[in-house]
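Subject: design request, 546 residues
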């Protein structure tokens, strides 16, 4: 409560000192100074990364509602405060009542006190997994490399203990297999395909000794924090049946627990890894007389979170019932557990701020466009696109009257030398005059307006990722997808994923305000052109028929 009171005080002090500017009309009202002043607040440390369910996100919602009210947007929610409330159900690990208990051959009990994590997070409030234990090396079955950790062992109905990665060189820096899919943490996805087919009771994975890590916390405390809880829309969570037909869980355990399990065999994990790596011969075996019981308790909490929505009514009697909705998510990742804040300046304070300026620009126009304009700030994007899902299922305007949804997610960066030199995968960051465009596939009219507006703004659209078969699935990874699935035509604009994506280095100082200004003005014009178009925004290629 004290944290929320402090943040609320910070909000109102900040609002009280905002500089006043001479009013300008329409497009000219969008300026760098206004972008920066909103950005300095929304990406500040005081908002603690705007994590779903945390006070910083609630303060950000109130800030946006104040902006909507001050600009004179219409509130359509039942309380007329611009805030659409919905419930996220959070299940968090109850560490005091969770444990791993090892029963060895001499009947001694060795409870594991170190934190552990189950993937996927169980649906029920209490999970218990118990069984005999099989050590299966790295958990690899590869015909290509004539290596099989499961040869001559039966893992059905057993709890399987495996290491991450693959057989490594002496220094532990390179995998001995040439195939790159066995290098790095992502290899468990390949391993599980075979392991699950053998119907084990569960899989326990531990960091291999040569990695120098004891547990998942050593990789990134934020990952451990993320795995400690699951969050979903409450209605969805109530539909989970927790049936035993679900795949067995993967349990990430501490190195100390693995060595306790292996103790009765007279071996430890380090010796077993050295033996495997030296000869590339599996060392798998059943731990005779050893069983393990994994008990995980969860605490369930309902979190009230908000979307923020305001409307600018259109001027054309024949078109004003139709709405062009601008959308951006305003939540981010919180803190890293070590004092660092995921400020999320580009992701997605940038889209959030752009919507404030776009709303102001429409209000500064001499006349509203023909169609109405909706300004929608959604929450809970980072944990599952839940805010946009809720709004798409419970829209504050008639769903059949939503002409277009324009989603802004990360719109304030330009490719830098650091991005060029980075080895980080998945980057899509654009140059100074380029825009990552997704959408327009459902409507030829919408795509035509998009292309004309890009040309008018002196920008080039990059459509490389605008397809359903892209391996990174960008079409599905932001809030627009919840509207596209309902055959509402969408456009998604971004300057792309950069080296600071989902890092604590995504801060205000890293933004390119020239690009930010250019993108905000372009997005304003794109929506204006859609709202002014006299013809229907026809959906000639509905997603439901793809």
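Subject: RE: design request

Done. Sequence follows.
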């Amino acid at each position: 409560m004290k944290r929320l009171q402090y943040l609320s005080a910070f909000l109102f002090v900040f609002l009280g000192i905002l500089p006043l500017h001479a009013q300008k009309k329409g497009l000219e009202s969008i300026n760098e100074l206004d972008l920066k002043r909103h950005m300095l607040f929304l990406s500040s440390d005081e908002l603690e990364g705007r994590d779903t369910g945390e006070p910083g996100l609630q303060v950000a919602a109130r800030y946006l509602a104040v902006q909507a009210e001050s600009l004179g947007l219409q509130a359509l929610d039942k309380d007329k405060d611009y805030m659409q409330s919905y419930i996220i159900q959070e299940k968090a690990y109850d560490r005091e009542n969770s444990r791993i208990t090892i029963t060895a051959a001499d009947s001694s009990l060795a409870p594991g006190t170190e934190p552990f994590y189950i993937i996927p997070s169980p649906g029920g409030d209490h999970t218990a997994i118990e069984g005999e234990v099989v050590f299966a090396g790295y958990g690899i079955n590869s015909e290509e490399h004539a290596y099989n950790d499961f040869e001559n062992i039966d893992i059905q109905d057993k709890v399987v203990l495996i290491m991450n990665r693959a057989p490594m060189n002496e220094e532990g820096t390179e995998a001995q297999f040439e195939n790159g899919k066995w290098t790095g943490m992502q290899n468990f996805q390949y391993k599980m395909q075979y392991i699950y087919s053998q119907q084990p009771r569960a899989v326990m994975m531990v960091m291999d000794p040569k990695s120098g890590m004891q547990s998942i916390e050593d990789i990134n405390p934020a990952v451990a924090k993320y795995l400690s809880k699951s969050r979903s829309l409450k209605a969805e969570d109530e539909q989970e049946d927790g049936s035993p037909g679900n795949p067995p869980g993967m349990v990430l355990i501490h190195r100390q627990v693995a060595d306790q399990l292996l103790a009765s065999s007279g071996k430890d994990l380090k010796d077993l890894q050295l033996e495997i790596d030296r000869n590339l011969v599996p060392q798998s075996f059943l731990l005779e007389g050893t069983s393990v019981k994994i008990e995980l308790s969860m605490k369930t909490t309902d979190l009230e979170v908000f979307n923020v929505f305001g409307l600018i009514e259109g001027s054309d009697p024949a078109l004003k019932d139709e709405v062009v909705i601008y959308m951006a998510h305003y939540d981010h990742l919180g803190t890293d557990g070590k004092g660092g804040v995921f400020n999320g300046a580009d992701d997605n304070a940038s889209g959030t701020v752009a919507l404030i300026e776009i709303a102001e620009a429409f209000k500064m126009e001499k006349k509203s466009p023909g169609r109405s304009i909706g300004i929608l700030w959604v929450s809970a994007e980072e944990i599952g696109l839940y805010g946009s899902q809720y709004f798409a299922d419970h829209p504050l305007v008639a769903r059949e009257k939503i002409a277009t949804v324009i989603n802004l997610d990360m719109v304030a960066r330009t490719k830098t030398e650091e991005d060029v030199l980075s080895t980080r995968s998945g980057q899509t960051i654009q140059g100074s005059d380029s825009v990552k465009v997704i959408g327009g596939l459902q409507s030829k009219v919408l795509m035509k307006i998009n292309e004309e507006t890009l040309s008018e703004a002196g920008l080039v659209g990059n459509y490389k990722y605008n397809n359903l078969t892209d391996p990174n699935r960008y079409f599905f990874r932001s809030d627009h997808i919840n509207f596209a699935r309902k055959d509402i035509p969408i456009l998604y604009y971004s300057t792309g994923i950069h080296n600071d994506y989902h890092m604590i280095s995504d801060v205000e100082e890293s933004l390119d305000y020239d690009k930010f200004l250019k993108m905000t003005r372009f997005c304003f014009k794109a929506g204006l052109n859609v709202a002014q178009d006299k013809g229907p925004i026809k959906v000639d290629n509905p997603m439901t028929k793809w």
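The mean pLDDT is 90.
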